[in-house]
Amino acid sequence: MRASGFFGLTLVALVAILGSYYVVMPYADATSCPASGCTVGGDTLNVSVTPSTGSSPLLVSYKAYFPGNSIMKSATWNFGDGVTATNVMNGTHTYASAGNFTGSVEVDATDGMSYSQSFQISVTGAIGATIGANATIPYDKNGTAYEYLLHEHNNTLAATSQAPLTLQTDATSYSQGDSIIIHGAVKNVSNQTAVTLRIINPLSNMVKIDQLIPNPDGTFTTNISGHQILATGPLWTKAGNYTIIAQYGPATNATTSFYFAGGDGTSKISAPPTSSTFTLQTTGGTFSIPYTIRGGTVSNIQIQGEQHVLVVTISATSDGSLSIDLPRALIDSKQQITAPTGTNTTSTTSVSQSELPDQPFTVQVSGQNVQVTETPSPSQRTLGIPFHKGDTTIDIIGTVSVPEFGAIAALVLAIAIVSIIAVSSRTGLRLVPRY
Predict the structure, then answer these.
(1) In the predicted model, is pLDDT for residue 120 greater than 90?
(2) pLDDT band, residue 225 (cuts 50/70/90)
(3) How confident is the model at residue 342 (pLDDT cuts 50, 70, 90)?
């Protein structure tokens, strides 16, 4: 049975909550579900795309899953702007230009059935700088690369590509006793105004509330002393989708969600994640890279500057996730612009990489592409990367990076210095003239 026949037998509820679309699609016949994936009364397919509105470029998070997490085979996304994603359950996508987009997702389940659901995304023009009359220069007329860049991105540069408030978790699902690490960033920090976090369970009851003062660059995280969030205790019993609502000031808010497997009401605590900072030496300086890993350890981090790849070597003892803060000065991923060509076209103004709008990193775990969560800020980009037991490498691929001053380069330099000293001692060559 395909999706079209399925919808003739079922009721589809589409609810817009705080700028998010949540879709519930019950099975027409609960007995058609495999026993491993169904619950009493039938299972449900949950689809969310958040936020549903915003200014361009708009970064949205998407996910599709059954509560059992065991009956879904694949999901294919069509975002309505010419971009698709195949065989991914969740991830992020950037709408680069303004417009009203109708997207859809088709999910294949292990029972042989397929389900599809559409969603609406409204992207408005960017809020930011303009360049006056030059912004309307046609592509085939005289204009600089900088003007063309503004034209292509609705007069939006990187300074306006960050949402007023961003919010992500380090994983998409948790079990009883797990630590829930929430990352976020405020675009415009106001004095000592705190970010208020509320976690709401599937019954619309609040199970946690907290307040965090953002760092000077606007970032904030619950993975600090006094703000740890544990999915355990008498309030954490109901299995299902939990919603996190962040509020900053009277009018700025953001939401995200995660799946909780349910608990028995007792206070169990799983093995806590490990947080540390890796110091990386490069030709561009020394960079501190904070990270938090659950289900494994980080043994090394290195930058492959020519390929713009950050390689993280891990030892994964179980399925887990890595949350890592990437300094933009070390590695970044930007939308690349090709200036228009033609006899009447000029390109005399260079464009800094920092001015280009962000694009998602390509992340590979043991050579396979994976979908990640991201929280951007002016100085860094925080990624949440899932991995499986036995994985050993995570490659984070961007478009610009600082080259590493590696061991081989250091060895070559040392040999060169020793050789110069040896030659000087034998020939009487003086490196510093005598006055």
Answers:
(1) no
(2) confident
(3) low
Backbone phi, then psi, for 413, in 5-degree steps? -65, -40
Contact in structure between 127 and 163 (CB atoms under 8 Å): no
CATH code for the part of the protein at 157-271: 2.60.40.1930
Do 47 and 119 meet the contact criterion of CB atoms below 8 Å apart?
Answer: yes
Whose tokens are 């289900």? That residue is 295
Residue 162, pLDDT above cutoff 50: yes
Q: Tell me what pLDDT residue 36 has.
A: 35
Q: Are 43 and 109 in contact (CB under 8 A)?
A: no
pLDDT at 338: 59
State how far the Cα of 291 lies from the Cα of 281, in Å rounded to an integer.
Answer: 17
- CA–CA separation, 185 and 217 (whole Å): 8
Q: Which residues of 169-200 are buried (b: 16+ CB within 10 A; e: fewer)?
A: bbbbbbebbbbbbbbbbbbebeeeeebebebb
CB atoms under 10 Å from CB of 317, counted, come to: 12
Q: What is the DSSP letter of 136?
A: G
Is the pTM higher than 0.90? The answer reads no
Structure tokens at 181: 């690490």
Q: Using H for helix, E for strand and C for coil, what is the string for 17-32?
A: ECCEEEEEEECCCHHH
> How far is residue 376's CA from residue 395's CA, in Å, rounded to a whole number?
19
More confident residue, 85 or 112: 85
Residues in Cβ contact with 333 at an 8 Å cutoff, skipping those fewer than 6 apart:
358, 359, 360, 361, 362, 381, 397, 398, 399, 400
- Token match 């009401």: residue? 265
151-160, 219-228, 367-376: segment of lowest average pLDDT: 151-160
**Cβ(303)–Cβ(329) below 8 Å:** no
1-125 adopts what CATH topology? Immunoglobulin-like (2.60.40)
What pLDDT sits at residue 378? 84
